[in-house]
Amino acid sequence: MNSKVVRRVVDLANLPPLTAEQKAELAALAARPDSDIDTSDIPELGEEFWQKAVRNPLYRPTKTSTTVRIDSDVLLWLRSQGKGYQSRLNAILRREMIEALKAKKRA
Q1: Would 102 be classed as within a structural domain?
Q2: Which residues make Cβ contacts (< 8 Å) with residue 104, sequence separation at least 6?
């Protein structure tokens, strides 16, 4: 069996401009009222769904390079645990962020 695979690379930061036909199609879709959309094959997503929802396991947030001033002993402790100290630091900060967001939501 001889298969041919075509691969394309799309630069999302530099997309080609929309054609007049594509712009017209988007405008027509935007003008349609929600009541015209047939959702009979799509289940309603109630509160229970969102309570059990989890983030896509393939989701990766974007990374931003920055300069931070960290106490020397904290940095030494992070580095003493081996490779990946920046990832560990990020994980610690993310845990704190999530806890703060949960606390804010409860309040």
Answers
A1: yes
A2: none
